[in-house]
Amino acid sequence: MTQTKKSLFKASFEESLNLQDDGFLQFQKKDVYNKLVNYFKNGKPSFGIRIQSFILTILFPVGLNFMVYVCSRSLHDAHPKELAHPVSQHPILTVEVYLICLLIWLLVVFVGKFVRRAYLLPYRYHFHACTFLIWLVVEFNLLAIDLSLPALSFWGIVAIFGLMFILACRMFAGRVRVLKNLMYGTDFSPNVGHKMASKIAVYGMGILGLGVIIRILLSVFSIKLSDTMTLLGLFLTWMILSLALIAMIIYMEFPFFLQAYYKWTYPEEYREWEGKSLEEWYGKKYLKKHKDLYQTDKVEEKGHV
Q: Exposed (0-12), middle (13-18) or buried (19+): which is 9, by Cβ within 10 Å?
């Protein structure tokens, strides 16, 4: 029997509560949300979290990503004879790319400042950390392309990203199906397209990976064995890091921020469900600009009486 299609973003409040049964979401709440919420009182970040955020921003989003760019620049500035294996003729990770990514990340942080409800601040803080990781992996992928392009060719790189994209879509479709099962209590079975995409992703990545490994090993005739193993290690690190980030976003971060979306959609319902006061839930600063919430709360209290 064909199930009625339901969107993940159109659940009722009661249906959204079923997300609590997701194991990855429970882990995120315990390991991330419950720890971050202690740094925000009445809608304001503590002095400690402000200092910590500033230091971590300098060290990681700005500093670490800049070091990846410096690494790319040093490879292209070095003499070809000094390199264990050749790199692409033209650098892909340039200073312009770094600055554009930095500006995009800072813009995301700036836009996040408009999210001021106290109960959403831990989500906002964690979201900025996730965008930093995405930026880091993007730069690492660009660096990996620089290193792999001479050995794999342009179409080899395209094939890798194409199959990774198919695999990511398959993982996302499966995750959506699981979350729908949780929220609506119905079985959304995968269709033929999902099954085909799954087979293409699994077998395609296997064949592609085997082909890349064989090609790298064949280069042992022109490159020293240790250098070949280094290139192979870089390729495997590239694949593992990229797929790990995709899996983390799909399986852990997506349901975490999906719950934040429903808290935004049903703020009063979640406030009552969690037993929070107006100041605990929204924060004093937010309530000063939305005094109508006090009146709504009084009306609801009279209704309960």
A: exposed
